[in-house]
Write the structure tokens for this entry.
Amino acid sequence: MHLLDDPFHAVLPAEHKLARNRRAIKLEQLAGETWVGGAPTSSWFQIVRNSCHQAGFEPTVAFTTDDYLAVQAFAAAGAGVSVIPGLAVHHPLPGVQIRTLASPPVRQISLARRAHGFRSPASVTMVDALKTAAAQQPG
């Protein structure tokens, strides 16, 4: 069951040349930058690398972590830029600027459960809570 689409956003050091740009950033504007992101085996790497290839460049990833707060901390320290899911930037760290991407990669968030499995009251409540939370996301 599809819950929501979660578009990625650019995470920039506060002093980055594009940080004050209020218009959507094109991914190719980040070509040549030092990047922070997931390891080569992560879903982040697969999604973002594919999007960068479509934009005509290979991201140069200098620091790898699958922890989105750590990604923001690296960006805040000026170690690089990143592109991470919108749900991961609802609460940006000091020292970073979050910018919308013109044609962002999008991850689809879904719920899977057995078609004929037992529906305990707790699982029904969880499904309802996830649907409610997904419906409240901007998008």
About this structure: The longest strand covers residues 2-13. Strands lie at 2-13, 34-37, 60-64, 82-85, 96-100, 106-110. Residues 121-135 form the longest helix (15 residues).
